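We emphasize that the prediction below concerns an isolated chain of 86 residues; any contacts that depend on oligomerization or on bound cofactors are therefore not represented. The input was used exactly as deposited, without trimming of termini.
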Amino acid sequence: MRPPLGRHVGHIEYLVDLAGYKHPSPGFDFVYHLLKWSDRSMGSFENESRIAALIERLQENPRPKGVAAITFENFRGFSEGLWDGG
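Result of the prediction step, given as a C-alpha cell string:
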C-alpha cells in the first residue's frame, strides 16, 4: 500500500521514485516543480492521488518521439490532455 503523499521530504522522495527517478537527479527538480504547480492548481494537495495516477500513466505510456525524459512541462501537458502517450 502506497503511503499518503504530502510535503515531507520522505514523501517527495517517494514521488521521485514513483516517477522513476532517484535523488539527486533532474527528476528531483521535476517533482519540486510538480509540487509547486499542484499547490497553485489543485488547492494545496486536495488531489494528491490524481498526481500519483498521472505519474503512473506516464510510466505506462511510451514517450512521444523526441522526448528524452519526463519534465515538469511535458508532465503538465500530459496532465492537461495535450500528450496522449502516443
